[in-house]
Amino acid sequence: MVDVARSPRALPALPGALLAAARLPPIGAGLLPARPSRSLEPERAAARDRLIAFDRAVVDAARPLRVALIADEALSARVAATCEATAIRPEDWRAMLTAAAPDVLVIGSAWYGNGGAWQYRVGWYAHPDALLLPDLRALLAWCGEARVPSIFWDTGGARTVPRFGDAAGLCDLILAGDPATVAAYRALPARRGAGVVLETAEASGTSVADRLRSGLLARSEATA
Amino acid sequence: MSARRLEVCLYSSANLNLMSGSSIWVQSVAEMLQAGLDLRVTMPLRCPERRRLITDPLRHLPGVDLVPPTRLRRYVPPTGLNTAEALDLIEALDRERHFDAIILRSFPTCRAALERPSLRGRIWSCYILEPERDIEDPAHLAELTAITEASERVLVQSEEMRALFEAVVPAGRGRTIVLPPAIPPAPADAAAAPFRRRLLYAGKFHPFYPVERMLDVLTILRPRWPDLEFHVIGDQFFRPPGDDYADRLEQALATTPGVVWHGALTRAGTAELLAQGGVALSLWDYRHGSTMNDLVVSMKLLDYCAAGLPVVLTRTAAQETILGADFPLFVDDLDQAGSVIERVLGDEDLYRAAAERCRAGGRRFEYPAVYAGLAPDLEGWPDAALRQYARPKLDGAAWNVGLLLPEEAIGIPPLALALIGALRRRDARFRLLVGRAARPGAAPASPGADPAAALRAGLPAELAAAVSVRTVVDEPNWYRTIGFALDPGGLLVDDLKPAAASGAVPLGSVDPTTPSWALQFARADEASLVAAAADLVNGGGWEGASARARAATLTGRPA
């Protein structure tokens, strides 16, 4: 039943001027609009270029992959098992990476990151270190200029995407372990990378080096 | 500060003839300021009064003086004063009343106020970080910085917004105050609203608030509960050019079975209707709004909480802070809303538990609690500056031992390393966060090349991963990351006051210079310090010790 009797539409007609005053437009252009959109295509194209170069260079490389790493213990152990991993710190990564540029930067969905060095600087917290991710952005800017691709490796699943979405969205590629998480990362409005790749549980038994050499961009584009 | 009555000017460009979140906010701030001891609030109105839903309640407040725009000139059109004229009026009133604080809401108003020499340095700029503006635009950042530098204080909506503001506008550090929306105090024994199977929405009509989806849920649930009603309060429609959104929604509100549309009500009238019970809805559709709204405390939510209603709402950081991350009626995705609403309508126990949680969550936004956050700066308390440090700790901070060293330090004191080593043998979650103090106003260290990294020289390999170092240019926010403040020299001097005000538990041995407030935290030797810290964190006593540290240093309103 429509309760028309209690609807404002059913009120006696108001004098025109009063009605006009009641309907004055609100101050400002609108209510809670989205931020102005900015094209992310140039950044996505640059990410794609870095991944193309990486995929070409490492597929058949005989030497171990050099990985600059930010991760919690489990992923750190997996990466270190088959790659030449360097755990980097916010305060002194620049000299380390300049001295020996890595093939790739891997950032895990890390709560602590390398024993705590990146605590509050990867995941979302209401804190200036975390909200705009200044440390990660600087690191990723350096990697971009040095043509080092960046990979965000999610190990937390879909529930933690709100926590790590901002960091993941800055990286050239995102690896996630199940379709729901892949979908959640693909839906990020500000994702600047070239794609999201499904890394299934079955694949987790193979070495990280093999996974990184598996033609990441092509896999991303095949499933996009 | 003199003992005379405090004079506060409160101005918002909101049109108080309209019932909207912005105009209700103005009313709520004026009401909240009544909690002050001796204070007059002068409120210049932008628009001539045509409707008194907001202004009449204000007029009845003893400490409020509404100033019509016609005070500036005889004829003012219905659209009201422009920004320059409003500032002319404020300046004229200031010459008469000598305001102690001039609270101006919105970015455009504050930006215009910069040009007024009489106002520069005296503005309390309020809510200038607006979701519709691009915080990555350097020109906008420059304007925010200019406003901030011309402001005595910057008022932000929530702790989360404070963090974002200080991240994008470093000039704001040290002068931000959290001023959330405020709700009327309820009696301590006030009951939650009775169980009633109906839905409630009060607010604007804008695609960001998906009322059309709520109507769909109503229609889906009516076959199960044929008497289910959806009570809707509000009359302010977003009318984008070339889009029939408003007409479509008006039509739906008028014709959907079960809808009872009340139009605009006074705040008190809304409260009365809400108090009769029901399930309140506060859902957001991010396709039509910025995710910066995640950081905002919703007036609508607080009004629902004040009424003791269970609220089905979108999960956001700020709302998790209010209700707890485990609140059962959070919706992660709009598609879940229908099932959550159905669940609470069909489960009276869940309804009551959620209503109680909402009632409790809203308590800290009642007028006296909100005024208490403003009072130290407004009334000029001696500890106002120290209160900049009194901010919530981050999750996990309790295991972080902080050590702030002078800028010229060349190494980490061995005692600190021994202590962290011993703590980690008891609990490997303990870490040492070493800060290297920077001169006031110093620029942040270059990421990846922080001079503080030199402090790592000679660090034992087994502790390398457990020690972080950084140059600290923002002490209040650095202190949010630590649970203990270590003074390895054994000198618990007054230098530790900011740390203690932050809630970091002082950690050090007793010394003749130890001030009396810190004696309760002092221990005789390293072993006692290790045992005390580990026991506090793992025995559940850390939060109490943190609160005692704050209480010992924040002395409150002078007698």
What does this structure look like?
The complex is a heterodimer of chains A (224) and B (559). By secondary structure, chain A is α/β, with parallel strands linked by helices. In chain A, 39% of the residues lie in helices and 12% in strands. Chain A has a 6-stranded parallel β-sheet, with helices on both faces. Chain A is globular, with a radius of gyration of 23 Å. The termini of chain A are far apart. The N terminus of chain A is likely disordered. Chain B is an alpha/beta fold. Helix content of chain B is 34%, strand content 15%. Chain B is built from 19 helices and 18 strands. In chain B, helix 7 links the parallel strand 8 and strand 9. The interface between A and B is large, with 58 and 84 residues.
Strand order of the largest sheet of chain B: 3-2-1-4-5-6-7
Low-confidence stretches of chain A: 1-36
Q: How would you describe the oligomerization state of the chains in this entry?
A: heterodimer
Helix-strand pattern of chain A: HHEHEHEHHEHEHEHH
Largest interface: A-B, 58 and 84 residues
Shape label of chain B = globular
What's the number of helices of chain A?
A: 10
Number of strands of chain B: 18
Structural class of chain A: alpha/beta
- Give the number of helices of chain B: 19
Largest sheet of chain B: 7 strands, parallel
Low-confidence stretches of chain B at least 5 residues in length (pLDDT < 50)? none
Major β-sheet profile of chain A: 6 strands, parallel
